[in-house]
Write a structure and sequence with these properties.
The chain is mainly beta and 171 residues long. It has three helices and twelve strands; from the N terminus they run ββαβββαβαββββββ.
């Protein structure tokens, strides 16, 4: 079974087993709704199933309690662990939308079929995402993820076709 990260438990909160989570999902309300199932990954062990009992927000964190965790001692062992969902639990995306994990690692080619590099990370900015491309020469290039630049994303062929803007390589 494939698991995907949706948040990280960064700390415990109080004595009743509540945990402070830094969310890494765009679907916070759906993912952390009471009754939803998450899996917690601890080191190399098989992920353990947890059912959300309560969810609330506190500043930039999601505060969760689980039916299976009743006190701080139980919650403490999950500190630093990733919260995950199975592939079956994933929310379907609109046509032309992708999960970050699908984009990272794709090979980038120009319209002229020149290999330009590999996407290593994604930065979120206010206007649009920026894909970080590791060039073959070891340098990194910031590629704006906009329609004028990203012409085609082909997950089957593990590549992206871009209109490489003049000056991108001159950083």
């Amino acid at each position: 079974m494939t698991y995907n990260n949706v948040g990280k438990i960064v700390n415990t909160h109080g004595i009743r087993g509540e945990v402070k989570v830094l969310a890494t999902t765009d679907f916070v309300d759906k993912r952390f709704a009471p009754g939803e199932t998450l899996y917690v990954a601890i080191k190399d062990n098989e992920p353990k199933k947890l059912t959300i009992q309560r969810h609330r927000r506190q500043k930039q964190f999601e505060m969760l309690t689980f039916e299976e965790v009743s006190d701080i001692n139980e919650a403490e062992k999950y500190k630093g662990a990733q919260l995950q969902i199975t592939s079956d639990q994933q929310t379907p995306l609109e046509n032309g939308e992708f999960y970050y994990r699908e984009i990272i690692g794709l090979k980038v080619y120009s319209v002229q079929k020149e290999f330009l590099g590999t996407i290593t990370d994604i930065m979120e900015t206010g206007a649009n995402d920026v894909w970080i491309v590791a060039r073959p020469n070891g340098k990194e290039v910031l590629l704006p993820a906009i329609k004028d630049v990203i012409l085609n994303v082909n997950l089957d062929q593990h590549c992206v076709i871009v209109d490489w803007l003049e000056g991108l390589d001159e950083q």
